[in-house]
Amino acid sequence: MPEKFFNGLTIRRMVTGMAIFVLAVYAGAVGLTGSAHLAVTPAAAQMSGNVPGNSLGNTSDPQFWRAIRKGVCGSVSIPDKQAACLVQSQGDELRAFRNGPMSRVGAWVMLAMLVVIALFFALRGRIRIDAGPDEAGRTIERFNALERFTHWLTASSFIVLSITGLNVLYGKYFLPAILGKSAFATLTLWGKMLHNYISWAFMLGILLMFVLWVKDNFLNKADLNWIAVGGGLFSKDVHPPAGRFNFGQKLIFWCVILGGLVHALTGLVLLFPFEFQVVGNMFSVLNILGLGLPTNLTPLQEVQYALMWHGVSTVVMIAIIIGHIYIGSLGMEKAFDAVGSGQVDRNWAKEHHSLWLEEVEGESPPAE
After folding, report:
1. What domains lie within the chain, and their CATH numbers?
2. Are 65 and 48 a contacting pair, CB within 8 Å?
3. How far apart are CA 60 and CA 53, in angstroms?
4. What confidence category does residue 333 fall into, taking pLDDT thresholds of 50, 70 and 90?
5. For residue range 118-147, what is the model confidence (pLDDT) as tens digits?
C-alpha cells in the first residue's frame, strides 16, 4: 500500500469525511422523526464532571442528567409531546407504590378482616333466631326474582374481578414457583381478558342495585337506635327495630355503590387509555373536602392515577365484602335465604327487620 496514504493530510480527510457522514445520518434521522432537543441552561451546560466508565463520554453534566431522571422534558416537533420526555418519573413512583405500600397495606387490611371475623365468631358464635324458626313455617318474600338476579350478578362478577385483580397484584410473588412461569403468564393473560369483559357485568349490577334499592337505603331515626345497641350483634335477645335494611346493610350498600362507581370510572380509563378525562374531574369533586388533589393531569397521569385508585379501592372493597359474606352465610342463621329462595322465616324478619315486617303485613305505615 502506498506509504503516502498514511500521511497527516490523508488521515485528517478521512476523519472529516466520517464526521460529515455521521452528521448526515443524524440529520436524516431527525428529518424523519422530528427535531428534538433538551433545554439546558448556560450555567448548567458549563458545569461538568467525570462519568465513571466513560459511558457518556469523558465528561457530562450531572445536573442535566439528574433533571432528565426527575422527568424534565425537552421539546419535539412531532404531535406526541410526550416523546420529549426521556424518563417519566411518575411511572417509577407508581410502580414503587404498587409494589410497596399498596401491596403491603392491602394484604394487612384483608388479613385483619379475616382475623376480626374469626374472633367475632369465636366469642359470639352464630347469630341465632332467639325465638326459633317459625313453628308454622311461615315465610315472607324479602327479595323478588329481579332483585336476586341483581345481587348474584354483582356478587359473582365482583368475585371474578377480585380473584383476577389480586392475581395481577400478588400472583407474581408465589404462583410462578408453583405453576411455572409459562403457566402463570398464560393464566394471567386469560385472567386479564376475563377481568376486562366481566367488568361490564359488574357495572350493570351496580346500576341495577342503585335503581332497585336506593329508596330503602337513606338514613332515618331507627338507624340511630340500631347504632346505639350495635345492631344486637354482640348480645342475645337484643333486636333494635329496623326497616327493610338496617344501618349495617345501608353502610354496605353505599360502600358498594360508591366503591363500584370508583371502580367503573377508573376501569374505563384503564380499558380506554388516553380517551377520558375522568380522574382529574373526580379529584375536583373530592377537593371540596379540602384534599388538595391535582386536577390538571396529562393523559398519561390520568392512567397512572386511575391504576392507583383502582387498586386501593379494590382491597378496601374486598375487606368489606368479606365481612358481608360472613354475616350473610355462616354468621347469621337463615340470612342466606333472603338471596337464595327470596323467602325468609317470619321470626327472622320480626327480630331483624320488624319495621319492614309491619309495613309488609300492613300493621303500620312505613317508618319515617
Report:
1. 89-361 (1.20.950.20)
2. no
3. 12
4. very high
5. 999 999 999 999 999 999 999 999 999 999
3-state secondary structure of 298: coil
* Helix H or strand E encompassing 141: strand 139-141
- Measured distance CA(20)–CA(258) in Å, rounded: 63
Neighbours of 52 (CB within 10 A): 6
Residue (of 201, 99, 197, 189) closest to 156 by Cα position: 201
C-beta pairs of 359-363 under 8 Å, 24+ apart in sequence: 359/243, 359/244, 360/140
- Do residues 144 and 178 touch, judged by C-beta distance below 8 A? no
Which of 7-11, 171-175, 324-328 has the least mean pLDDT? 7-11
Phi/psi region, residue 137 (left: phi>0; alpha: psi -120 to 50; beta: rest), is left
What is the mean pLDDT of the segment spanning 269-277? 88
How many residues can be counted in the chain?
A: 368
DSSP per residue, 109-128: HHHHHHHHHHHHHHHH--B-
Separation of alpha carbons 243 and 266, rounded Å? 34
Query: What is the rounded distance in angstroms from the CA atom of residue 61 to the CA atom of residue 49?
Result: 6
Cβ atoms 62, 47 nearer than 8 A: yes
What cell does 282 get? 373526580
Residue 263: closest CA among 216, 217, 299, 313: 313
**366: nearest Cα among 247, 215, 243:** 243
Pairing relationship of beta strands 49-50 and 36-37 according to DSSP bridges: unpaired
d(CA 145, CA 346) in angstroms, rounded, equals 19
Give Cα separations from 102 to 96, 99, 164, 165, 168 (angstroms): 9, 7, 17, 13, 13
- Across all residues in the chain, what is the average pLDDT? 83
Q: Helix (H, G, I), strand (E, B), or coil: what is residue 284?
A: helix
